[in-house]
Amino acid sequence: MTDSVFRIEYPTGYMELNVREFFANANKKRMTKVLKLAKQYCSDLRREELINALRSEVDRLNEVIKKLESLRQSEQYCLQAFFPQVRIEPSGYEKALRRQRGKLTESMALIKDERWDG
To answer: On the CB side of 117, how many CA atoms lie within 13 Å of its CA?
Structure first.
């Protein structure tokens, strides 16, 4: 699986961003700076490609999270015969994936709402 890369070309150079890594982890200041460059130098077609890449990453995370939930529920079901009060909490990995999914969804909404000049 190759990660999606978003490239912004501007007069003095370019920037390549790993879509999932950047948009799931960037703070507001970095996000604002990158989106300002993207709005100025990228076309609406590139914007749509970015939105599609973000949507694809969200879908991929949804699949993984559903699988983890299913595994957790299966484990809980197996243990209930022996430990009726058992409650298995989501793992740290599952929580991190949920946070990433939320950030990617927020980024996608932000990009959809912005008007690009490029």
So the answer is: 7
Chain centroid to CA 33: 18
pTM of the model: 0.85
Burial degree of 58 (CB within 10 A; 0-12, 13-18, 19+): buried
For residue 47, the tally of other CB atoms under 10 A from its CB is 19
Q: Characterize the bridge pairing of strands 13-18 and 5-10.
A: antiparallel
pLDDT for 28-46, tens place per residue?
899 889 999 999 999 989 9
8 A C-beta contact, residue 19 and residue 53? yes
Q: Per DSSP, what are the bridge partners of residue 8? A: 15
- Distance in angstroms (rounded) separating the CA atoms of residues 41 and 5: 16
